[in-house]
Queue: 2 jobs
Job 1
Amino acid sequence: MAEIATGPGVENLTLWQRVHDYLRTEILEGRLQPGTELVEVALAGQLGVSRGPLREAIGRLAAEGLVTVSPRRGAVVRSLSREEFLELYQVREALERMAVQLAVPRLTDEQFQGLAELNEAMDAYAARNEVDAFFDTNLAFHARLFEAAGNSRLQDLYRQLLGQLGSYRLRSLMLRGNLQRSVAEHKAILRAARRGDAERAARLMADHIRVPQRRAMALEEANPT
């Protein structure tokens, strides 16, 4: 770890916000693994901040479900059980389905073009096995649909859920399996959306999100604890 960044845009954030954004990125990108203790004294020294902004940042991370805070251990990067992982995916399925139903009647030709271009980029990344780039572009594809839905509360819930799933993205990708299949599923969703069939597009999205759930459940049945 290094001191938190400064620069255009970043300077307008309060100190605790900068600490929060830095730690959130470290968690979501896997540099702070689930189970890692966030020791205040050490972190404050590494980041060059006092413990006040650090505690505020950790409190916000706890509210987002990224860390847990207990009297004995302090703050720890949250670990998800298999049951919690499946529950979050069930919630994600419901949110994504709703987003598509709301978005389809509102999507413009320009937005459809943007979604198609993102899916083409995913196709190229999948062919080259560039997993990180594929994952980031996939997130952008889904985020565009939530933006098009025009419901800020729905977007807030989605961001919070992704925060809790973020550090498990490799697990999610492993469960999804073939990346090319994911690209094909996105294309089918877009075809239904272009026809104005919101119900079919939403159903296809639900099926798409359900893939990791089904595989996780199959693995659990094959390897009971």
Job 2
Amino acid sequence: MPDTQILRRPLIAIPALVAMLVTWPLAAWAHVESGQAGGFMSGLSHPVSGLDHVVAMIAVGLWGAQLGMPALWILPIAFPMMMAVGGVLGLTGAPVPGVEVGIALSAVVLGALVLGGLRLPLAAAVAVVGVFAVFHGHAHGTELQAGQDAILYSLGFVIATGLLHAVGIAIGAIQRWSPGRQALRGAGALVMAAGIYFLWGALA
């Protein structure tokens, strides 16, 4: 099978999977108590409800694709794990200063890393995504609606985050060709520009 066909399948299938999960009707969860179903679906849809979350989480996958193994898989695991920590802080009401600024900065920094194709040591790369993940998780945790299941809500936003990382990894596969590497850096520039816009809004 030609390489272009191999790459086209994940590029189409993964976004379709994300769309399917975040739009899954609550009727499909009819056997679960309403608070539990709402908690999971709310958590699943929350990361894609804000562009600031979406671009940063996709950027993690893009950067992981640039770095290659083992960062390709470690970064998309480290981010949801640390995001869950931030989520617990948000759910319990523990304060984290500058959450919106931190979320915006995550897009700026991750976009700049992709744009520059910077290859940090693995430990440093994990630390970068881990710190930013706490801000994203805290924002998700503080927005749990009354009556919803906190555990299923957290599970939902962690799964959605992993799927967004997978989208970034799939897009990052274009770096196998020289024009693709340039396009990937262009995507990093777009993420960074979006982050600057979000940062301007957070500081306004």
